[in-house]
Amino acid sequence: MAHRPKRTFRQRRADSSDSDGSQEPLAEPGEPRPAEEEPPEGRGAAVAEGPLGRRGRRGRRGGVWASSRRAATPARDDLASGATESRTVDLSADEEDVTCHSSESKAERSSSSESSSSQEETEFSSIVTIPDATFIRAARRKRELARTQDYISLDTKYSSTISGIKQTNDEDPESEPDDHEKRIPFTSRAQTLRQRLAEETRTRNEEASEESQEDENQDTWEQQQMRKAVKITEGRNINLSHSSECQIVKKFDTSISFPPVSLEIIKKQLNRRLTLLQETHHSHLREYEKYIEDVKNSKSAIQKLENSSSETQSFKFYKTMKIYVDNLISFLDEKIINMQEIESSMHALLLKQSMAIMKRRQDELKHESSYLQQLCKAETSTNGSVTTDEKTQWILEEIESRRVQRREARALSGNCSHQEGTSSDEELSLPDMNDFKKSQGDILQAHKKIFEDVHDDFCKIQNVLLKFQQWREKFPDSYYEAFISLCIPKLLSPLIRVQLIDWNPLQFDSIGLKQMSWFTPVEEFMANSMKNSKNEDNSDKKILSAIINKTVIPRLTDFTEFIWDPLSTSQTSSLIMHCRVVLEHSTSENEVNKSKQDLLKSIISRMKKAIEDDVFIPLYPKSFVENKTSPHSRFQERQFWSGVKLFQNILLWNGLLPDETLQELGLGKLLNRYLIIVLLNATPGPAVVKKCNQIAVYLPEKWFENSAMRTSIPPLENFIQFLLQSAHKLYESELSLATQTLMRRDIHPSVHSYIIHNSRRVEAA
Description:
Layout: H1 41-49, H2 51-62, H3 72-80, H4 84-104, H5 111-127, H6 133-148, H7 156-171, H8 193-249, H9 263-308, H10 310-380, H11 390-413, H12 430-448, H13 456-459, H14 461-474, H15 476-481, H16 484-499, H17 519-532, H18 543-563, H19 569-586, H20 594-614, H21 622-625, H22 631-651, H23 659-681, H24 686-697, H25 717-731, H26 736-746, H27 749-764
Helix pairs in contact: 1-4, 3-4, 4-6, 10-11, 10-12, 10-16, 14-16, 14-17, 16-18, 18-19, 18-20, 20-23, 22-23, 24-26, 25-27
Domain GCF C-terminal: 462-675
Main location: nucleus
Region (Disordered): 1-136, 163-225, 411-430
């Protein structure tokens, strides 16, 4: 229940104090209170229309209504001395103030205050009479005199002037002082008694309105509490009446009679109840036994189905195979990044070594050629002195020291038929060799750690193929329908690439393709597939070629394009050996292999680049070349035999590259452009015969086995003409027989017959 708010009772005081704190005497009982009473609208309007109207307006302009009311205190003191007339004047002045104030604040009053003021006006009008103009002037003079007592004027003329101006203003209301004659207030003026009374009246009216509002709220609250009390009382009465009715219904009726109960009746009922419970229990036992038997039968059926159902076995196998393949793929995805890093590191190391050797050979060739050119100019000039810089001198000394070492090594091995210039010059300095071996050892050490944390079922190729072989043997239909033969090369490719990291096909003692550890398991997997499969179009027979095309051939292509040196006979022979084996197993019949085409293109482009960059045979005057011990003659001989060596390496690709390509590279670009020119400028003799014999030895026998091919090799025409001219020059000399004997001994019979046949044809022409 809400608490009742306290009512406030405030005492309304009629007295008020002025600015000095002195209290005014209480008004008489019949006398009206100026702060509470206001003239009615009609009377106020009449007063405004009379003589006070214009004077009141002038007073507002002149600032008379804003003056202090402290002058009223001495006026009332004079009235208290017993003068009745002055009491009447003060009352009239106060009435004038109240009337004017009420006319100014009339628009701000509410309707309730207007009604109360109208009632008070009736009482006020019966007592107070309106003063005339004479009394008003006298009252104004007294107020002005009282106002001048607040301060002592230092200038009597100024005060008299001001009083005179005010008097004239009172007498002539039309005349007003100019702006420069008005007093300018520099401080805030104190409130007059009339203003304080107006403020007190306003606050009292507000308090009265608040009290009336509180009274209304109090009445409303009391009414709400009364309504709530009435509703609660009614609810209690209803509940009490309902509970009493229920109690009345529940009362036991003693008039009802029951049949007699005996011990036999109770016993029969208990026996009947016991019989029913026993029957229910037996039925539940029978159901329980039935359920136990059903569970046993179900378990035995499940066990029987699990052991005898092929579908269940296939499901288990497929589930196991799926888990294995998922694990294998995740393992390869995790390791492939490490594999690629190690593979690229090894490739970069070999590339760096190869580029260093090739660059060194080209720099040495450039410096030696420029030195010999300066030497020729020096010998032809009158000075005859050659100046070389320190770098060129150091390079020439290095070249000569390596040649001396190679001569000593050949002398120890017993190879006396070696020609200067046929060496590959692949020797590295001792510091460079040590750095290379150290870097290679670090890479191979990291290579061994790739699969150290992997189970053998995932990193060994034979174990991986065994899983798929079991699938092929148990469920061959699903095996071939899933195209497993296309998936196996992709799964085995990373594992094979790891084994090829330390494989260098350019080394003569490198392991062959068939000796690799992965080759035999793949071959056996294919062989078992061919035995067990009755289908002639077995897709498993292409697994080996797919693996080679995907892993081995790209590896060979990288070596051929970036690392292989065509001037090296050992590298070329080893590369050709591996390429023959790889290309033999890479493709099937009537099948175009893109990786094979890329490999052959890289071989051809590399040989073209070697002919353009590495072949350089200078031509010197015969006076410099006739002396076989001169540096010019020796340099020309070395460069000629270097070109013959490249000619030999190019023609070694016979059987792998097309004949047209080999004839264009070996015969057209190398023999006719470089070698024939040196032979034409040489003097006929045993040296020229030996050179021609060596060139004829390197020609492939396959080109001359067919009789139809004897006249179908246009690039050889220049070489045959040179042989015929050389034979005519040597025919009458004593060396002709020895030359023929030399050529017949070394050249293949088919090549010899081809040369003789074309020589006769050219001679007849």
